Amino acid sequence: MFLEEKENTAEAKEASGKSGGKPQPRRTAQRRTAPKNANAAKGQEQHQENAGGQKAAAPQKSANTQKPKQVPAKSQKDGKSPAKQPSKASKKDGRGKLKIIPLGGLEQIGMNITAFEYEDSIIVVDCGLAFPGDDMLGIDLVIPDVTYLKQNIDKVKGFVITHGHEDHIGALPYILQQVNVPVYGTKLTIALIEHKLEEHKLLKNTKRKVMKHGQSVNLGCFRVEFVKTNHSIQDASALAIFSPAGIVLHTGDFKIDYTPVFGDPIDLQRFAELGKKGVLALLADSTNATRPGFTMSERTVGKTFDAIFAEHTSKRIIVATFASNVDRVQQIVNTAYKYGRKVVVEGRSMVTVIDIASKLGYINIPEGTLIDIEHLKNYPPESTVLITTGSQGESMAALSRMAASIHKKVSIMPGDVVILSSTPIPGNEKAVANVVNELSMKGAEVICQDTHVSGHACQEDLKLIYSLVHPKFAIPVHGEYRHRVAQKELAEFMGVAKDRAVLVNSGDVVALDENSCEVIDHVVSGGILVDGLGVGDVGNIVLRDRQNLAQNGIIVVVLTLEKHSNQLLAGPDIVSRGFVYVRESEDLLEEAHAIVADAVEDCMERGVSDWGKIKNIIKDSLSDFLWKRMKRSPMILPIIMEV
Ligand SMILES: [Zn+2]
Ligand SMILES: [Zn+2]
Q1: What confidence score (pLDDT) does residue 321 get?
Q2: Which domains, from first to last, does the chain contain?
Q3: Which residues are catalytic?
């Protein structure tokens, strides 16, 4: 989703001192710490606007052969199974129709992936990841379940990618191992994908093709044209999908920027031409569909920077923003140059993106402007600018570490001016507020006003698109349910018939032709959890255990029995973690010990020899006692050793 651009947990991961390219073993500091991060992660999952520097963990080859488990995607929280199996009875014949099958990205936040199928051809638009919810303990990221693509692998012709944000490209390294088909995208998008593939050592095995705006590629019976749009990352594209059933226009994430910082404005002329030809369906970005008015040009932010720099000539300036927003960085660099300041870029994902962007010529940094962070101390503070990650309060990102005085090279000084060039993504407000507080306590002046514009089209922009494209059917995408509803209403307002503006769910098979647009079937959809090197090996049961452990802790009861006589030789001993602080709870633990000892003795006396039974008796008696005494139910793990 899509509210705003955002930084991703890569920041946090990077911050924990892990180096870029190598696959890293799981567990990031970010997730270990508590609510602040949880919030950050929550927001991040909503819209991954960070491009480069994505973490880490390459999936184990063998993991892929495992049967993926379904994840608690949203539908499951509602008590429904996320895996909707095709029901033969209701299955209608979609022959001669275009099938649109969103495999993710509608209920779930992030994880955009949509299949388009016509007879024996399938193309897939985007392949994004989602960040785990607060309840997905220990999970690094969530990737879409592509069972349907695997089942129809012979039909799948390729991935066509709209832009380089994580929620659109992040799952590619995982999915390409299961569905190895060519990937098409514009220059920056492909470069960011290649960076990921390299990290996962998949570059050699993946066919990629760089597409120019205006170019199209034939994939089976489809032709896909890349149409220039604007967004908070460069090289974003809408896709005009020409199928035997008609033209479908997928906007991807987009905004209308008449004066973009880099490159051309959105190709509205092409949108209009397609509209003239006749567009069967429009799948448009709903992220800002609840916001009235127009989205401001990225360039307006540059003016704000100018004003702030002009006002604070005697102070050091630190600007935090999204790593992938190269245009934003360009504008900060421009202003810095104008005011004779040296620029330091800090935060691994940002360094990666800027590196890729400057190699491609997407950012222009005047010679001698960029300096290494090591050289920062050689310049007076008022002639430097730090551009950093961490604008979402991600606890391990550079800005938060500076604020918390744990950054190795930069500490906040009284008088520093810190600009947060972003808006907090819902869920991150608290984390951002914490960082702002910490910065203020250290004497920094924090500026948030007018230093950010959205990368998504608002209502008036959407109206323009509708009036140019004039689609027969409208299928709002990208956005929470409420956003998609807002776009549906807007579509109706713009003349799309009520029954032709349709809301669909992930897993729906939407069959489309000139006359109708209906859901004719359902396929498996949902998320697969990635934890370190494990893909899909953590399912609901493991998650439930983790939640229980996290909430209640664990008590291990150890005893030793003699092999044949079942005599108690040692124990029971009680060890606990995350339950009570042992030193202050000696009485309680002694009582618990007595309860367990009684239970064991009872078993011995009654001649209970089945270890399973003994374990259950221990568990039951101890959990009864703890519940009565503490109103707590830790996980109890009896271990019987045999001598
Ligand atoms: Zn997106
Ligand atoms: Zn995006």
Answers
A1: 95
A2: 47-294+455-535 (3.60.15.10), 299-447 (3.40.50.10710), 553-642 (3.10.20.580)
A3: 285, 456
